[in-house]
Structures are given as C-alpha cells and as structure tokens.
Amino acid sequence: MESQSHAYPDLTKNQALVMGALSQASGPLSAYTILDQLRDHGFRAPPQVYRALEKLVEFGLVHRLESLNAFVACRHSPGDRHETIFFTICECCGQVAELSDNVLTRRLKALAKGAHFALQKSTVELRGICRACQPA
Asked: pLDDT tens string for the chain (136 positions)?
C-alpha cells in the first residue's frame, strides 16, 4: 500500500497510512482490520491505529460509524465543514453512503435549541436495505 502523505501533507506517516487504507477501502474498516493491513508498514499494536484514527476524526477526514464500530474516509471535500453527517448502512451488503441535507441539519438544530441544547455536531446512521439488495 502506497503512502497517501502527498494528498495530506500535514499528516504523520501513521496517519497518512491509515488514511490511505480507509480511502482505498470499499467499505468501513475496523481498527483491527486496518492494523492487519498495515503490519507490513510497521504497525504492531492497536494503539498506533487508534491514535491515528483519533486525529483523523478530529481533522474531519474520517468518520466513526458507532453502530458498526468501524471507520470510513470522509467523502466530502477537505475543509467542507458539515455539522451533521448522515450515513445509510445496508444490512445485507454492508454498503455505506455518506449524505448531507441542510434542511434536516437545520431541523435538528431547531429541535436541540428547543430543548435548550447547543448542538455542535451530530451523526445519524440510517440502517436498512440498499437499492441493489432490495427484492425486485
């Protein structure tokens, strides 16, 4: 696996390798799957992966899917700050899609404000069956 440091110049070597693994993945990856993929690049222990993932999430380059305990690369442009992230997760094939919706984001903010809560960030995971897996 080739390092992605040229695409993300401010990342450490480990962060760039983890980012590369997630960017090339066809679906979400667990930290242990990433560790297995990067063993030939010097990764020996889960904390190396978790530290890199923590920073990548902080930078907004990676999202954690709570229900899957897995991670995906952000599909939005770097610097495109989105306060609310929506994911569709197919229960059959595992396909994950990242969506955004400004109307729904505003509605969530309004609901939070009505509850006297200052919403800063939210992640919504929608689980169901994708079009390809739905019966005809």
From this structure: 444 444 566 899 999 999 999 999 999 999 999 999 999 999 999 999 999 999 999 988 999 999 999 999 988 765 556 678 899 999 999 999 999 888 998 999 999 999 999 988 889 999 999 999 998 7
- What kind of architecture, by CATH, is found in domain 84-129? 2-Layer Sandwich (3.30)
3-state helix, strand, coil in the chain (%, to 5): 40, 20, 40
Give domain limits for the chain: 13-73, 84-129
Distance CA 20, CA 24 (A): 6
Could you give the 3-state DSSP secondary structure of residue 131? Answer: helix
Tokens of 113: 């404000």
Q: Which CATH number applies to 13-73?
A: 1.10.10.10
